[in-house]
Design goal:
Length: 64
């Protein structure tokens, strides 16, 4: 009976963890780039999609 209880606890934890991961996952890269463009344009900064891609690549390289 203890093994079955342990299995249920493990499966319950896995389900809760998977749900939390789906809820807290960051948004897709394309959506984030669009949001960056909108924010910069609201601030009066004109930027193309290629420039945003270059900026994202530069920032991603700085974190590594």
């Amino acid at each position: 009976m203890k093994a079955l209880t342990l299995l249920y606890a493990f499966l319950g934890g896995a389900i809760v963890g998977a749900g939390a991961a789906l809820l807290l996952a960051p948004e897709k890269g394309e959506d984030l780039r669009n949001r960056i463009c909108k924010v910069l344009r609201k601030k009066g900064i004109k930027i193309s999609d290629d420039e945003v891609d270059a900026l994202v690549a530069e920032l991603a390289g700085a974190e590594a």
